[in-house]
Amino acid sequence: MSIYLLGHGSVPFGRTFFNTALDELLAKAGEGRPHRVTLYLTDGLALDVCEILELGSDYVTVHALRSAEEPCDPTVHLVPYGLIYRVEVAPKAGDDRRFGFAKSARRLASP
Fold first, then answer.
1. Residues forming a β-bridge with 91
2. Contact 38/67 with Cβ under 8 angstroms?
3. pLDDT at position 109
């Protein structure tokens, strides 16, 4: 089953992005401060990421909440990189009851 991608050819938010560029974005947003990371998907879903669990060759595994949900135990989502069209990094507000973001993914070597 093929995944519809926005744009042409390559996937903008693939394994390389999560291994390198996300660290740089988090550092620019303020290292040591709590963040919210939201993945926007081409199927219309927005996921508030609590933790990146694994970076596969074709997908990322995350603990996340759907943006409209109340805070609770996050569910595990396996998201094909081709579904991600936007990544939002924002400071986590002090009164935000949602989980914060923790980057603890097992990094995989390039194929």
1. 35
2. yes
3. 43
